[in-house]
Amino acid sequence: METIFATNANIDPSMLRDIATGLVQTVKNREEIHRFAIITFEDKIKRLESVVEGYAETYERAPDGYVRNTMYPDLKIPVGEGFYREAYWVTPAHDGYIQAYGQEHGPLDTPFSLPIYARAVYSAEPTEPIPAWFHQLLTGTPSIYANLTKAAHRLDDWGVAADIARFRKLDDDLSCINAEIERLNAEADATRIAKTICEGRLELARAPKQLAHMECLATPFVRQRSEQLNTRGGWKRSAHGRA
C-alpha cells in the first residue's frame, strides 16, 4: 500500500475510495476468521475438559442398579499385565455372571462381566445330595423354574442363582447332545442294516468268485487269512480262484 501511494502522488479519489473499501472488507474478513477460530478452539477446549472431568469422576455412590460388593471379597477385575483390582460395585447379570466396576471407575467406563459361583457353607453337618424335589424344580417347566430363580435372587449369595442358571443351561445342552446322539445311533443302525443287506446281495451274486482275479490286490495277510478260513470251511481255492 505504501508503494502505491509513493509511486502515485495524484491518485484519483474514486480509486482511493475503492482501496479504502477493500481494506475495510479485508479487516472485516480477518476479524470474522479470527472470531470463528476462537469459537472453534473454545468448543474444542470445552469438549476436552468434559472428557477429562468424566474420566476423573468416579462413582462416589453406587451406580443405578449396583451395590457395594460385600459378598465376594475375592472377586477381582483384571487391569492388565497380570494385575487385578477389587470389584467394588456389582449387579447381577445373566447366565451365571455379574457386572462389576472398580472403585476407580466412573460413568464413562464399561462394566466388567465376571462369573460368580455359589459359596460353600461350611457346617458340622455333612453335605447331603440334592434331593429329588430340587432337581425337579431345576429342570421343571418355565413357570416353576422362574419362581425358583426369583426366590434364589432374594438370597444373600447371588452365586446360588448364578449356578441355578448355569445348571439349567448345562442340562438343556446335555439334552440336545443326547438327542443328537440318539439320532446318530438310529442313523448308524439303519446304515448298518443297509450295509448287511448290501453284503448279502453280493454274497448271493457270488461276487467274490466272479471277481476272483482281483484277489491279488489284497494284502498278503488278508489273502492268507482268507485261505485259512476257506480251508477250515472244508474247501480250498484252486490256483485259478475256483473250488
Walk me through what this model shows.
With 243 residues, the chain is an alpha+beta fold. 54% of the residues lie in helices and 10% in strands. It is built from 7 helices and 6 strands, in the order ααββββββααααα. The N and C termini lie far apart (125 Å). It folds into 4 domains: 2-56; 60-116, no CATH class; 131-205; 216-243, no CATH class. Strands 1-4-5-6 form a 4-stranded antiparallel sheet, with no helix packed on it. The radius of gyration is 43 Å and the shape is flat. Mean pLDDT is 82; it is low at 234-243.
Q: What is the number of E strands?
A: 6
Please count the helical segments.
Answer: 7
Per the principal axes of the C-alpha atoms, what is the gross shape? flat
Q: What order do the helices and strands follow? A: HHEEEEEEHHHHH
Helix-strand blueprint:
Blueprint: H1 2-7, H2 13-56, E1 67-68, E2 76-80, E3 83-86, E4 89-92, E5 97-101, E6 112-115, H3 132-138, H4 142-152, H5 158-204, H6 207-210, H7 220-232
Antiparallel strand pairs: 1-4, 2-3, 4-5, 5-6
Features:
single chain; 243 residues; alpha+beta; 4 domains; 4-stranded antiparallel beta sheet; two-stranded antiparallel ribbon; disordered C terminus
